[in-house]
Every structure is written in C-alpha cells, then in structure tokens.
Amino acid sequence: MDIQSLVIILRGALSPNSDERKAAEESLNPFQYTPQHLVRLLQIIVDGSSDIAVREVASIHFKNFIAKNWSPHDTGEQSKILPGDKEMVRQNVLISVAQVPSLLRVQLGESLKIMIYADYPEQWPTLLRWVKHNLLDQQVYGILFVLRILSRKYDADEIAKLAPGNSFFSILNRSQLEIPKKLFDPNVFNAWMVLFLDILERPVPLEGQPTDPEIRKLWGWWKVKKWIVRILNRLSLWFGDVKLQTPDNEAETFQENYAGKFFECHLNLLNVLRGGCYLPDRVTHLVLQYLSNSISKSNMYILLQPRLDIVLFEIIFPLMCFNDNDQKLWEEDPHEYVRKSYDIIEDSYSPRAAARDFVTELVRKRGIKNLQKFMVFIVEIFKRYEEAAPEYKPYRQKDGALFAIGTLCYKLKHTEPYKSDLELMLVQHVFPEFSSPVGHLRAKAAWVAGEYAHLNFSDPNNFRKALHFVVAGVHDPDLPVRVDSVCALRTFVDAFRDLNEIRPILPQLLDEIYKLMNEVENEDVVFTLETIVYKFGVEMAPYAHGLCHNLAAAFWKYINTGEDDEDGDDPGSPVPFGCLRAIGTIIESISHLPHLFVHIEPTLVPIMRRMLSTDGQGKKYVSLLTDSCSCRDLQRSYGNCFIYDIVPANNIHGNVESLAINDGSTSRAIDFFPNILVFLDNYISKSTTHFLTCKDPDYQQSLWNMISSVMGDESLEDGIIEPAPKLIQVLFQNSKGQVDHWVEPYIRITIECLHRAEKPYLKCLLIQVIAVTLYYNGSMTLNILQKHGVATETFNLWFEMLGQTKKSGVRVNFKREHDKKVCCLGLLSLLSLPADQLPEETLECIFKAILDLLVAYKDQVAAAKEEEEEAEDDDDMDGGLQTEEGDEADNSRIIKLAAQKKAFRASDEDPFILFVETIKAMQASDQLRYQSLTQNLDFHYQALADDVAQHAEQRRVEIEKEKVEKESTTVAA
User: Fold this and answer.
1) How far apart are CA 843 and CA 826, in angstroms?
2) Tens digits of per-residue pLDDT, 67-126?
3) How far apart are alpha carbons 554 and 573 in whole angstroms?
4) Inter-helix orientation angle 673-686/617-628, to 10°
5) Per the omega criterion (within 30 degrees of 0), is the bond before 504 cis?
6) Whether pTM exceeds 0.85
7) What is d(CA 736, CA 453) in angstroms, rounded to the nearest whole number?
8) Which helix (H) or strand (E) holds 375?
9) Which of 100, 289, 833, 941 is disulfide-compatible with 937, CB 3.0–4.6 A?
10) Which CATH class is domain 306-496?
C-alpha cells in the first residue's frame, strides 16, 4: 500500500461515524505486516505538510504496532517485522523525535522506549554514536530525550559502566536512591572528600564577582559550592546512621573522618551572613538543610551546641524576618510576592523556609530547653517593639517573631507553660497588628490568627474578635493582606459550628473572594471557598449557580494562561484542580436539589468536554472531574458529552485506545478506565432510558466494545480489568428486562475472563456479574451457563469462594456490603426457578448460602452504622470551637466525600424483604418443596431464617419511614 492510500484509510479512522471507522480499521489490518508498512507510518508522522490529525492517528497506530510486534513475548517466536524495516525505523526515529510536535513526540517516545529496551545494545550498537554525533552538532533536545529513556533502563552502576569518565557530580546526582558501587572504592571516595573540603574551605574571591544578583548566583565559584553542598546533603542522609550496612563500612568512615569537618565548613559558610556578606539563597538553603539533618546526630549536635546561640539568634532568626527583597517585591509586584509566598516549589529554595525547618527540627529533636531559649528571645522582641516609639519600632523583627510563633503553633499548643498563655499572647501581640500602618505586619497577623483559629479560646469573644479582624482584612488595600486574610478565614470557618457570625455577611464575603480569584492564582483562596461551601451545606443552594459560574471562570482563566506558556499542554498549576474540587463540593452540597443542576449544567459541560478531550488537561483532571459529577441526578448532556465525543475518539485499532482519552501522554488510555467507570455508572444509573434507547450513537454497542476490548485482552493485568465487570453489573442492575440480547455475550466474556483471572478480587467481581445476570433473569442465565457447559464449575467456584475464611473466621472473599448483597440477590433468583431447573439438593445448598450471606450482610451494615455514629460523636466533642486541625481535617473530609462518590450501589431492592417474599411465593406455589426445604434444616439455619425474617419486618418499617421523610424533604425544598 502506498503512502497516499494509507493516509486515506487513517483519515477514515477519524470519522465520527462508527461504521466508517470500523471499515477503515478493518481495511488496515491486512496490510499491517506487509514490507515497509511501519516505515510509511513513520514517514506520515514526520511529514509536516500532512493533516496533524492524520499524523496523530499514524503515531498511535505506530506505537501500538511496535508495542505488540517489535519484541515477541513468547520465547522462540519470530518477529513479524522484517529486519530491514526495523533497521530503517531505527535509523530514522531518533532524528524524528526532535522534529515532530509534542503531540506526536510522546507517541514516538513510547515507541522509542520499547525499541531501546528490546534492542540496545546488541541490535542497536550505533545508538551511543548517534548521541555523540548529535552532541557535536548541538542537537541537545534529541540527546536528552534518548538519554532519559536509557537512564530508565539502566541503574546507576550500569550507567557508570557505560560512561566511566563521568564525574562524581553527574553520577551521584543521577542516582537518587543509592550510591554507585564504584564510588565506594576507598581511594576514589577519600579523594573526592578531600577535594570537597578543599573547595568548601576556599574563600570566594571578591574580584570578578558579577554585580547583577541573577548572574552572581550562577557564577562558577558559587555553582561549585552549591553542587558540593547538595551532594554532601545526600551523603549525610545516606551515611547518617553508622549502623547502616554499606561496603567497607563507608558510613562509619564518613562519620568519623569527614562529617565533623564538613559540619564546620557549613557553619563557616553561614557565618558570612552575620556581617551582611553575600551567600546565594540556594547555598544558604542547602547549608541549613544539612544542619537540620545533623541535629538528631549526637556527634554533630555536640559541635553545634557551643555556637547554637549565634546560629539561632544571629543567622536563623534574621532569615525569618521581612527583608529588603520582600519590601521591594511587595511594593513593585505584589502578585509575585503572593505567588512566592504560597508556592511550594519556592520553599525548596527559600532561606526563610530552611530557617523555619531548622527551628522546627531543633525544638522537636532537642527538647524543651531550646524551645524555652527561643521563646525568651521572641518575648524580648515583643517587649522591645511595644516599648519603642512608632518611628523606631523594629517592624521587621516583629514580623519575624510572628512568623516564629506561627511556625511553632503545634508545639506551643501542646507544651506548658506556653499553651496556657497563647490566648493572651494573641490578644497582646497579634491583634494590635491588624491595624498596623505596615502592610506586611497586617498580613502576618492574619496568617498567625489563622494558625491559631483552632485554639480552645477561654473567652469566645476573643475568637470572634480574631474572626472580625480577619474578615476586615479581606477588604485591605494591599493585595497580600487580602490573600492572607481570605486564606486565614478558611481555618476560622472550619473551626466552629455556629456560623451566625458569618452568615449575615456571606454574600459580601463571596463577592470579595470572587474578586480575589480574578486577581490572583492561588489554590488556598479557592480552598477557602470550598470550605465555606462545605460548612454551610444546603444553605449554599441560592449561591450554587454563582459559585459554579465564578469557579468555572477562574478555571478557564488558569487553563488559558497555562496554554500561553511554552509547555501549553500542562499549566503546572494546582489552581484549576482546586476549582474543580470546589465545584464537586457544591454539587455534593445540593445533591438533594436536582432541579438546580439544570442551571449548573451549561457551565459544567464545556469543562467536561475540555477535560475529557484529546489534550493534556484530561490526564491531569479527569479523575476529579468524574468524581465531582458522579452519583448525582445530572442531565443527559454529560453522558452525550462523554460517550459520544470521547469514547469513539481515536478508535483506530479496535483496542483500549478507544476507551477514553488519548491525551498525548506516555500512558495508555487504559489508565483512565477507573475514571470512566465512575462516570458511566452515574450516566447509566441516572439516564437509563436515554442510554438504552439512543441509537445514534449506539451507547449499548459502545459499552460492549469498550468492555469486551478490556476483558478480552489477555495481556492486561487483573487490576486493570476490574472496572469492566463493575460496569456490567451497573448495566444489568439498571436495565432489568430491557437488555435480554446482551445477557449471553456478557456471560460468555465473563466466563472466559474468569478462567484466566488470578487475583481473588477480580474473581469475586466476575462471579458477581453472574449473580447480577441471575437477578436480571435467573432462568435465562442458568440456561446460558448450561448451554456453554460451565454451570457446574461456575457454581462450584462460587460456593467454594463463599466458604473460604481466615483463621479468625473473617471471609476471604466478597468482603464489601455490596458484594454480599449482590450475591444474595443472585442466589435468591434461583429459589424462584421451577423444580426441574433446580434439583432439591442444590436448592438446599443455595438456601443455606443465602442465609449465611444475609446475616453477614446485616452484621456488616450494623457495624458500619455504629462506626459512623461514633465518628459523628467524636466530631461533636470539641464544643464548636475545636475541631480536627489543618490538613488532617481537610484530608478526612475529602476522603469521606470521595468514598461516598465512588461507592457503587447494588440494586435498591432490599434482600431481606425479597428473601421473605420469595419463600412465601414458594410456599404458595409448591407446598411440598417448601416443607422439604425448611424441615430438613438443622437448628442453626432455622434460627438464622427466623432472625432474617424478623429483620425483614424491621426493614419494611424503616423503608416506609425513609420514604415519608424523603417526600417531606422534597416538598419542603
């Protein structure tokens, strides 16, 4: 096939019409193994004049074909790719990687990885020569791309063998987790240590140092010192414990001969800061990191103690204070000041962050004496500040002192005598700074107040004062003060249950937060909004539309800003993620008011289309997006968007690429299958009629194509297959009597998969598919199993798995409430079958299994309810002002919400009531069979049957009560 014909077929694979796509794929199959096919695909990929969509399709097919055929999985199997074609691809793919757009490069990169792993060095000895040649020609990008793949294939020892001339710097920093054995040679190691000491001890010459700060920190002298300190940090961690078993006891050698000398060098480096001399921020950070890691080591702490006061009060504390660079940034670029203040990456380079970590580690590892010493120093600063005249007040030192008590919040709240005086400290030294003429002190006061919002205030009025000060700061003229105030507001909202202090001003607060979201890109601001939504719950309904609209606007702003960057496929910001998370919280808060979704839907659908499209955003946000929109009464647009626009996309090979997103990542689309599962469960459950009746597109066929591709792929691991049987359950649970024609195909592929399954959990899921189809139509399912000759083995396996227990008596399989319920419903359907379909001995076995399952299910539900009530009681014990603290509270809430969203429901039918009704029906239709079954039961199972019957009556009452309450709530809403 020539290139033009191949292009036409590939273009056909892009058609929105499923028949045309399928025809194109089928026409491509006969030519896959013909000579030059792979070469022609590569030519299409590289051809810049071709349609980018066709080139993308070609790149995907190229990658899939290489993954399947380049290196046969079975020993002795011959490759279906001609050696000449392989050689031609090897010769051209390297240079192609550097030439094509990023959308195609990642596909070629994945292909290149497969080829390198299979062929280098035996079949590809010219690879390193190509690297050397392109290095001389300055083809840096292609080299780095190839070397990155090579580095993943080889560990540090093998890299050292490949490049024996590499320096200690490059080899050690390439090894993140271990040190290459070559460097354990005592002569080599000692030589490097001596050289490091020599360079660290040498003073940096003043002559020749650049005056420009950005150039100065990159000057050769400082770069060398930076890299040495960075390497020594790694060595101190690696050799920090002399008990560590290393070749030739290098840990002991390092600690005895070098650790102390390096420690002295680090202290001397820091000492220049006392005189106001220059030390690059990155070097300062790394040196302090080294000292922090040394605090726990007795031999290092002994060296530190004589100079601890100097280090703590003359070096560390000044680094914690507001400085000239901060002032300049505050005045000239407040947006950048805010960004740097909240950027986690900045903490990796900031001397202030390193100073904070040093103090935290010191009081944590070296006890109360150091805390007492430091707090005496801080109190003295507070005192000097209070006594000084306004024009002489040490504003910057006060800022550092506030930063210190905020940093040590957790320690101070749990240590006497400080914890008893914290409320007084806030009133005397923090509250006054809310009205300070100095902006950075107003901002610091808001931050400190937020850190102590969970304090158990003896006077509730002090809590309210702090809250009012923070709320006032939301309107401050200085941007950093507004941001710190809004972020502090989150902890206040989270800290108490009576929201009457905020409720009257809630609309104004929301407006200010909206304005701030438009002004700065800050995840903590979005998180405050999310916390307000969570705390006010149903009260947020009147604001739901406005909230979603503003969050969506912020989301698009941040996404579009990210696309303007050089790496437009990923904005690199957590803020869009925070916006989507907040939208999910809003949806959760109005879950009982489905009519509001009509107004929110137009705002969310474009985001869903975007996040589940073929660009890079999908990979980053699809999980959160599907979680946010799952298990809710959303409109059918979501399903249309997802199934119609996303599932058929890029379906060129009839395999898992058609499952979801091809975002240009190196991961296969199958990685997104769990996300699709959550979304499709919601869509099938909530828009069942549309799902079943729509023929253009044919959703039922799309679902079958998707599931059969996954469950029929023998190369996939069990863990990846697991979402597929869950989706089958969803289909039959929600479509009873409407999808008879799908019962046999799904049973067939389930049994085939069951024969290959290895993990017990996947086997449980597949057995549950059988249970669900039995519940859907017991007679039809049993006939299909018998028709394929697998009925006996399937039920034997099922009962065997039901009977497996640990020594403690806990079930090995079907552990979840859902699992037990599904098994009950499936087995109950068999009790309704005529006697000629179910022998009496089989009937008794099934009956006993049902009773065991029902009792276990009842006990598990009761235990879960008890745990939930205990958790609620624990939440109420804090008296309204004291709750879970900080990130732990946030994480707990998020985990709970995620668990609720991702829970797959079994049928709404109550298994206890169904059991009683089924037995009554048997008694009425076949009295002899009923008597034979019940009279042959031993005392244990008779007692279980009575217990289940009593619980069924209890459930009838509860269900009726829940029904009435729900109707009342709906009417009230």
Assistant:
1) 13
2) 888 887 655 667 788 888 999 999 888 888 878 887 788 888 888 888 988 888 888 888
3) 12
4) 40
5) no
6) no
7) 53
8) helix 367-387
9) 941
10) mainly alpha
